[in-house]
Write a structure and sequence with these properties.
With 188 residues, this protein is mainly alpha-helical. The chain is 81% helix and 0% strand.
Amino acid sequence: MAFLGISFLLWGIVILALIVVALILVFNGLILARNRMQNAWSQISVQLQKRIDLVPNLVETVKGYAKHEKDTFAMVTQARTAMMNAKGVAEKAKASDLFTGALKSLFAVAEAYPDLKANQNFLQLQEELTGVEEKIAYARQFYNDSVLDYNNAIQTLPNSILAGIFGFKNQEFFEATASAKTVPKVSF
């Protein structure tokens, strides 16, 4: 009879240990998904900052050739300021789209000046900006993939139980706004 009691006790301890291990694995998986998503966001931030840092040089180069395009320069400057001051995913996405539109307008202005298009400094800045834009696009995709994995992890059973207890929340995707999907109109 004593042997039977010890056997049940051992089985109870083993089952409890397995439940604790499973909970730890689920919790650690949630933490890993969140950290992966946060890392992806920081990669976007790095690339957005590179783009912000390149623009003043680009604007100054274009200004030398297109002095009467003040509206375009003001629009780029305002978009850059909005980008630097944006907080959170949705606000950063909106500011990024505004900034992209302003840059498209700046490049449209540059198209009207053949000497500018041939300027080595302008060409180098344009090439650097193109590289940064490609990295931003990749970083956005990676971030959105990470958000998808994270959101899936916190919404599926049994993870959703622990996610609710420990305050894991759904995250926003970094999406282009409707204004970013339209081509800006530039008139001379």
